[in-house]
Specification:
α6 crosses α11, α14 crosses α19 and α26 packs across α27. 34% of the residues lie in helices and 22% in strands. Strands 1-2-3-4-5-6-8-7 form an eight-stranded mixed beta sheet, with helices on both faces. It is flat. It is α/β, with parallel strands linked by helices.
Length: 945
């Protein structure tokens, strides 16, 4: 796109869509020679004051020379980026490389002057902050390490953009100008600022979709039925509080209303703003609808239309164009092929979905990529949240369909600080950006529970998902390290969600069990043991127990300092003696409310009445005279909970706390599994409060390692290092590998042994024999040359010629436990550190555990202790305990190496012999490659289309 004098091709990889502070989107791209007219038009829209701040003098218009300079770049020493909406510029930024004298320069000069200009109508939207992130990333790519900017003191907004970015900077004042200089190397603070801005922007973009002031349904037909008409009806029935419009190009010109809703032939015809548009027209008509919405200033779309990526290659291209088209206007999309969105807040009451019934209001946020799973989740929560367990319901619900734009990560950003959501439940068919999801999940889980079911890894239609090489259980463990409760079914998802939404977190795994059935109590006891809990022996109250007996027993259990949670088991009441359902429920509730800090669960057998009674919560509970959901006794629509008149309350009465709702489960294993998840989550919360630290080691030579890596990679795109290079690189991080000398003949073996000193080890290193001591390829404790030569003859006699065996000689290491330490860059999970015992334990039994890099000192200690064979390290059956602190330090050093240098894509240390004092690394390999793409670092961007 550039003219001949320009030195670089157009850098298309710099193009990106970004979410701005107010939740809108903009496109960032390089400025080219073809943008001359756009630049002039943009400049005409800028106020005289902003022009003065940019050029330090009145500058009413750009000269032809200015336009040429600002649109012709070499994309190395001179770069310009523009933020665009609707194809037009709203802001620009450029840098010019300068030398030490401040004059234009080329590489190796590593400083550049940077300047911004933002259209006044778009100031305050965070455009300059987003452009700074992108121009800084471009500059780092081109070898620039430092920016300088000169700003007038009165231009406080721009000074704030620079100072708030979090970079290390210098500030001076000379000749009436503020000069700022700052390094472009990301710092802990700059990343924190970037992540905070990302969270606010993405949360705001979702909030605009879930809390619209005006909604239009495009495709609402005149005849009953059809998707658009159904959604329009669902919005009306839910009692949507904003302005609602029906739109259909086929409406007669004289049609003013449809079902009491103002009707229009086009979104353009609506007098007033429209925040959200539900698109329910055939896919061929969607582009026209998107254009009309964009021109009208619509903020977001819910596209329920099908015929996109799920329909094949043509549909995939149609989906890409849909996203590009919508983002060009600053709009975000849920869908296409979406089920819709719901917000039960009394201030909104939005049911822009295909769900015919509004869910009960509650504190649970629901996300599902699949519409079918979304229906199942809403249905189960409706049954469990009403007929079974009371008024626990949904705060917001998002079903993303093909997930072309808005994803689970975006919704998670919204729920993080949403005051109406206490628990997050997610059904994910895939995780498109695992590193970002893990980061967001860790932050969210520190504030509220996050429970996830992940499907078999299939991507939403039109998405390419990087396949993990890690087993399912390993991925689950890595997610749990981020605080995610990963369960296997939507039943478990709802079970855990209801407990976490209703009850406090347990302070430990100790469980009291009481009830009127000995057999059900013992079954619960066994399930607790199987789930890793520590149950007390069940207390059998006998079938003759009264409600008061239950209350007293539960009160005693809750008052017991050795109890962290209580499971109450109950079987149907028979005869006149046992308590009724309502009486028993009230007894349990009163005892639980007296000690509010411990969770209580009920396992019931065919006790619908007890479950309903347990969940009764004043006027919001279903009434005896109510019919099926949505209908009154006379067939009319029943008032919803928020429409029910409140109970009379004395004017001077203090506000009451929410009722203590006790979750009830129809089977012991379901209750215990939910409790075990809560125990694990509570433990993670306690540990997350003090996650540990990444230690600094004085002997680590990070810069020396970087130079070595750069030199090695200069030889090729990816390579496995030689033994010498591996030892040198690991040595830079304080990891010493015991020398192994090649022994192609008996004489060279003897010479190597004399150099190393006896006793020595002789071992075969051919690929089929490496690390296979069980095959006899290793000879230990060779005390002299005679033993060495005899072992050499045995080895070559058994496995073949020396060039087939590849024998080496090593000095004998102190006896200890053989372990394996590995680090790898997994395509989905990111950088992962692994640990296990060498041999059958890890290879045959899979006894290997993993941690996400970077690893803290607490992570390293937990990793060593997490494998099933860990007792062998700590003196099992009278054996000598080994030096686990030295092992933990080794894990931390490997983690640092991989975290500091993303070019290190694989490290294997095998075996690592851990002795009573110290350890020895006997074998090591390292693989280098150009750094893999990191979509969790760098400037904020939306997924590319």
């Amino acid at each position: 796109m550039q003219s001949a004098p320009d030195r670089q091709e157009y850098p298309a990889h710099w193009e990106a869509d970004v979410v701005l502070r107010d939740g809108g989107t903009a496109r960032v791209r390089p400025i080219t020679a073809e943008d001359a007219d756009r630049l002039v038009g943009f400049y005409e829209q800028v106020s005289d004051e902003s022009k003065y701040f940019r050029f330090f003098a009145p500058y009413p218009r750009l000269s032809a020379k200015d336009v040429h300079r600002f649109t012709h770049h070499d994309f190395v020493d001179r770069v310009g980026l523009a933020a665009t909406v609707g194809g037009e510029f709203i802001a620009t930024v450029r840098y010019d490389r300068i030398g030490a004298d401040g004059r234009p320069a080329s590489a190796p000069a590593d400083e550049a002057e940077v300047a911004f200009l933002v259209q006044d109508a778009h100031q305050g939207r965070g455009v300059a902050s987003a452009l700074l992130e992108h121009i800084a990333a471009v500059a780092r790519e081109r070898g620039i390490r430092r920016f300088a900017a000169e700003v007038l003191p009165a231009n406080t907004k721009m000074i704030k953009v620079f100072t708030d970015a979090g970079y290390t900077q210098k500030r001076s004042f000379e000749d009436g100008v503020v000069r700022l200089e700052f390094d472009l190397e990301p710092t802990e603070r700059s990343l924190a600022v970037q992540y905070a801005r990302e969270q606010r922007a993405e949360a705001r973009s979702v909030q605009r979709l879930l809390m619209p002031g005006a909604v239009a349904v495009v495709g609402a037909g005149r005849t009953p039925g059809g998707v658009g008409r159904s959604i329009l009806g669902n919005l009306r029935e839910a009692g949507y509080t904003g302005r609602l419009y029906a739109v259909n190009r086929a409406f007669p010109e004289d049609l003013a209303e449809l079902d009491g809703v103002p009707a229009y032939r086009s979104v353009r015809d609506i007098d007033g703003p429209v925040d959200l548009v539900v698109v329910a027209v055939p896919a061929d008509h969607v582009p026209r609808t998107v254009a009309e919405c964009g021109e009208h200033g619509v903020q977001g779309l819910v596209v329920v239309s099908a015929g996109y990526a799920e329909s094949g290659p043509e549909g995939r291209e149609r989906q890409r164009e849909l996203v590009r088209h919508a983002r060009a206007y600053g709009m975000r999309i849920i869908g296409p092929n979406a089920f819709g969105v719901i917000n039960t807040s009394a201030d909104v009451r939005l049911n822009a979905s295909l769900a015919p019934e509004m869910p009960r209001p509650g504190r649970i946020g629901l996300f599902a990529q699949s519409g079918a799973i979304g229906i199942a989740l809403l249905s189960r929560l409706h049954r469990r949240g009403g007929g079974v367990t009371g008024v626990t319901g949904v705060s917001t619900f998002v079903s993303s369909g093909n997930r072309a734009d808005v994803s689970g990560n975006d919704v998670l950003q919204y729920w993080y600080d949403d005051p109406d959501t206490d628990v997050v439940l997610m059904y994910l068919e895939s995780i498109g950006n695992p590193r970002k999801f893990t980061r967001l999940a860790r932050r969210t889980a520190a504030a509220k529970p996050l429970v996830v079911v992940q499907g078999a890894g299939s991507a939403p239609q039109g998405h390419a998902v990087r396949a993990t090489r890690l087993p399912h259980d390993t991925v689950s463990a890595l997610l749990r390290q981020a605080g995610v409760l990963r369960v296997n079914t939507i039943t478990e998802l709802v079970d855990a969600g209801l407990l976490l939404a209703r009850q406090p977190l347990p302070s430990g795994p100790r469980v009291a069990i009481l009830g009127n059935s000995e057999s059900l109590g013992l079954l619960t006891y066994d399930q607790c043991l199987a789930s890793g809990l520590r149950p007390h022996r069940p207390l059998d109250l006998t079938t003759a127990a009264s409600a008061e007996d239950f209350r007293e027993a539960l009160a005693r259990a809750l008052a017991d300092d050795t109890c962290d949670a209580v499971v109450v088991t109950a079987i149907p009441a028979i005869g006149e003696g046992p308590p009724g359902d309502a009486e028993l429920a009230e007894a349990l509730r009163s005892a639980a409310e007296a000690v509010p800090g411990k969770p209580v669960l009920v396992v019931h057998v065919e006790l619908g009445g007890l479950a309903e009674a347990l969940s009764a919560a004043a006027s919001t509970a279903p009434q005896a005279g109510d019919r099926a959901p949505g209908g009154g006794a006379d067939g009319s629509r029943r008032p919803r909970p928020s429409e029910q008149p409140p109970a009379a309350t004395p004017p001077d009465a203090p506000p009451s706390a929410p009722p203590r709702l006790i979750p009830a489960y129809p089977a012991a294993e379901r209750a215990v599994h939910a409790l075990a998840e809560a125990v694990q989550y509570a433990q993670w919360r306690r540990e997350a409060a003090d996650p540990g630290r990444v230690p600094e080691y004085d002997d680590i030579d990070e810069k020396g390692a970087a130079r070595l890596i750069d030199g090695l990679l200069a030889r090729g795109q990816g390579l496995t290092l030689s033994t010498e290079a591996t030892s040198e690189l690991l040595g830079r991080y304080g990891i010493q590998v015991r020398a192994a000398l090649q022994a192609p003949t008996p004489d060279t073996a003897a010479e190597a042994a004399r150099a190393l000193g006896y006793p020595v080890v002789l071992k075969a290193t051919a690929p089929h024999l490496r690390h296979r001591a069980d095959l006899g390829g290793v000879r230990l404790d060779l005390a002299d040359e005679e033993q060495l030569r005899r072992a050499y003859a045995e080895l070559t006699g058994l496995f073949g010629k020396p060039d087939e065996v590849r024998p080496v000689v090593q000095a004998m290491a102190p006896r200890g436990v053989d372990t394996v330490v590995r680090a790898v860059i997994d395509p989905a999970a990111g950088a992962v550190l692994s640990f296990g015992l060498a041999g059958a334990a890890s290879q045959l039994l899979g006894d290997t555990e993993h941690r996400l890099i970077p690893v803290t000192d607490r992570d390293a200690g937990a990793l060593v202790r997490s494998i099933r064979t860990a007792p062998l390290l700590f003196g099992w059956r009278g054996s000598t305990p080994v030096d686990t602190p030295a092992l933990e330090e080794l894990l931390l050093r490997v983690s640092r190496l991989v975290d500091d240098h993303p070019e290190v894509v694989a490290v294997s240390l095998e075996p690592v012999v851990v002795a009573r004092h110290g350890l020895t690394v006997l074998g090591a390999s390292v693989r280098l490659a150009p750094p893999p793409a990191r979509d969790d670092l760098g400037p904020r961007t939306l997924p590319a289309y």
